[in-house]
TrEMBL record:
<dbReference type="InterPro" id="IPR001680">
    <property type="entry name" value="WD40_rpt"/>
</dbReference>
<dbReference type="InterPro" id="IPR015943">
    <property type="entry name" value="WD40/YVTN_repeat-like_dom_sf"/>
</dbReference>
<dbReference type="InterPro" id="IPR053053">
    <property type="entry name" value="WD_repeat_protein"/>
</dbReference>
<dbReference type="Pfam" id="PF00400">
    <property type="entry name" value="WD40"/>
</dbReference>
<dbReference type="InterPro" id="IPR036322">
    <property type="entry name" value="WD40_repeat_dom_sf"/>
</dbReference>
<protein>
    <submittedName>
        <fullName>WD repeat domain 25</fullName>
    </submittedName>
</protein>
Length: 228
């Protein structure tokens, strides 16, 4: 469902035929959005005609998150594959137009990645992992993982904990299954601060897009807090 934020009314509602876990708008074509979830297929919908215009098929059971890269020609999906021979399907890079896989040799550690985030300035993206760290990758082919830089100190432990960047990309923020909000220096990966934000697992930390000292957090129970 797509909702008009001014009126609060849904403008588009489609039957995706599987439980939807992630939806993302195309950065260059806002009428197109991708849906992933409890299916081996990611669907591209055109909201003007409410029809599926492309499908992307992979040998997975569930898509956890979808991330468009800078110009919208490529995107990354994360999956629930955790078996011994499935490390090559944890993260998959796709060509948006042709629906072909560009690479599935991106992340070889046997942890699922519940969320992805694109750096707002540099050609890189990060993946939250169930190894209790955030991994860093190039957003250029072949999407190489930076093994010398990773962000750890928080806990994921099976929750769909999200991570996000400040507007200038200087700070990476992450929730934690312990209920705390963590802030890391992007360049050095050093932990800057940790706030015990909630008694329930902290699912998301979102820096304010205009006010640099403000952030919002939310927890597993649905509570939202604003922090200075």
């Amino acid at each position: 469902m797509i909702t008009d934020v001014e009126t609060g009314q849904p403008t588009v509602k489609v039957d995706n035929q599987f439980k939807v876990m992630c939806v993302v708008l195309h950065p260059g074509s806002p009428d197109v959005f991708l849906c992933g979830g409890h299916s081996s297929v990611v669907k591209a919908w055109d909201s003007r005609c409410c029809k599926v215009v492309k499908t992307y098929k992979a040998a997975v059971q569930q898509t956890l998150d979808i991330l468009f890269l800078r110009d919208g020609t490529d995107f990354i999906t994360s999956s629930d594959c955790v078996s011994r021979d499935s490390a090559d399907r944890t993260l998959i890079a796709w060509d948006y137009r042709s629906t072909a896989k560009i690479s599935n040799q991106i992340y070889h550690e046997r942890y699922t990645c519940p969320s992805l985030a694109l750096h707002p300035v540099e050609d890189s993206f990060v993946a939250q992992t169930n190894g209790n760290y955030v991994a860093l990758f190039s957003s250029q082919t072949p999407f190489k993982m930076n093994k010398r830089r990773r962000f750890d100190g928080h806990k994921v432990e099976g929750y769909a904990v999200r991570c996000s960047f400040s507007l200038d990309g200087a700070i990476l923020a992450s929730g934690s299954s312990t209920g705390s909000a963590h802030f890391y220096d992007y360049q050095s990966t050093r932990a800057l601060d940790a706030i015990q934000a909630h008694s329930q697992p902290c699912m998301c930390v979102s820096p304010h897009p205009v006010l640099p000292a403000m952030a919002a957090t939310c927890d597993w129970a649905g509570e939202i807090k604003i922090w200075h």
